[in-house]
Amino acid sequence: MNAIKQAMDQASELILNGYRAAAAKGLLPDAELPRPVIEVPKDPKNGDYASSFAMQSARALHMAPVKSAQAICENANLTGTVFSSIEWAAPGFINLRLGHHWYEGVLQAICAEGDDYGRSTREHPQKIMVEFVSANPTGPMHMGNARGGVLGDTLAEVLSRSGHQVSREFYVNDAGNQIDKFARSIDARFRQLLGLQTEEDFPEDGYHGDDIRALAEDYLKEHGDSLKDAPLQERLDKLAAFGLERNIPKMKADLRRYGIEYDTWFFESELHKGYIEETVKLLTDKGYTYRKDDALWLKTSEILRGVLLSEGKTEEQIEKLELKDDVLQRSNGFYTYFAADIAYHRNKLAERGFDLAINIWGADHHGHVARLKGALDALGLDGEHRLEIVLMQLVRLMQDGQVVRMSKRTGKAIALSDLLDDIPVDSARFFFNSRVSDSALDFDLDLAVRQDSENPIYYVQYAHARCKSILKALAAEGISGDPKDPDLTLLTDPAELDLIRQLSKLPEEIRLAADSRDPSRLNRYAAECATAFHHFYTVCRIKEAATPALRDARICLVNCMAQVVRNTLSTLGVNAPDHM
User: Fold this and answer.
1) Cis preceding-peptide flag for 91 (omega within 30 of 0)
2) 3-state secondary structure of 438
3) What would the pLDDT profile of 403-461 be if each residue is shown by its tens digit?
4) CB atoms within 10 A of CB 228
5) Distance of alpha carbon 11 from alpha carbon 37, whole angstroms
6) 181: Cβ contacts below 8 Å, ≥ 6 apart
7) CA 562 from chain center: how many Å?
8) SS3 238
9) pTM of this prediction?
10) What is the pLDDT of residues 283-293, one digit of tens each?
């Protein structure tokens, strides 16, 4: 149950009906008015919800907002609603206050829905694919993949819990230039081990990491010098396959350790079995390609120019963008990465029927967004609306107030597995999701391992552990941690009501996180719940409550708090420990 949305929808209907009743009596002019917009006042003294409907309607009604607001409030019927009062205030606000039965309903819903509290349905759910990380399988997962991993995984989760049909996907770049470079790098190390090459023979643009040398050593241990005299292409094919067979399982293991499981691992090599060629032919048949210098080009500039003109851009503005065309097939016959990318997204939308494809990309891919959307538009796939790119800013690791760029153990880029050796997975996931994706993020390694209230994940997890500790202590004294039919009307203390208001927000926070593509809302929400609970615990005694009935009502509230924190952290892929 989304108590927030239900209350806001009801408030809008209540005000509109109040206007209609006043108009029917001749107190207000009869006019076609938009549905009232409901907001939460900054100052709770002004009520739980408010609307500036009277001010927005002043011109249509030809009446002072104060007068129309007064008429609406006096003719609004609260019977059967969750509100206890509706009042007007200068210069024309309409304020509403929730009745206590609303608060009771929130706790009853949490108890009834349990682990499903926070989930909702959609009238028109979408079939959505979220593709994220998709790191090249030419080396170990590194720290740079950590933020994209948790952002994509958590975004997929909030989309699912808000009512959409969601699939998580990893795109494996197991074909193309980077795999050729990968194979040549292993081959160079392999031939060095055999004494057939020197360091000077290593490819200038090759991969120099220790992992490449380790792969060459492993191949030699398992297969000896069987490739010593083999033709170059045979060596490259076998060494590439050998490297991928070892790297991809390692990537899966690192991501699984990080709490990420994909529904699909899609291999680029599958596209090279005719699908890229078919996709490029479709673009050619539609007149969007041409040949130049023995290469096949996409008329990217023409496609984007059409899009920009439809958006109202002038020729002069478009000229300043210096739009360029893109190569789809090189003169040697090989298709470019861009051609493969177009084919891959055509596969998502046309073949597998996703309504929406969401990609989590680094901010350095910004220039690629319009080109890819334009290509999909050219294919008739409405890339502008069916492809969505969430751009992610970089992360700086901080320790002792200084930027950390390299692993102390290896002196090289920090591998994801090394990061998780030093930082608990819960802390890593919570911290990497703590800011909206288009904001840069400083990850404080010292703070992430602290066990005090300064560490935000510790602060939230401690609130859950405190709930469990309270219930355990009560059970030790023979007091039920799950009282039957508690009298929730007794929960009237401001701290109790404030906590219930916080707990009511979870379904709406998940919906808003999904719609705004900002799962970091849940980090902030979890911290706000913890703050409200710690205040409640300070001012409201539980075991020593004035009456057993009040004690039982507060026990119910503690149970609901634990459930909401558990559900929130579960959405973030973080554990809710029972003790700390």
Assistant:
1) yes
2) coil
3) 987 655 555 678 899 999 999 999 999 999 999 999 999 999 999 999 999 999 999 99
4) 11
5) 9
6) 138, 203, 205, 206, 207
7) 23
8) helix
9) 0.93
10) 999 999 999 99
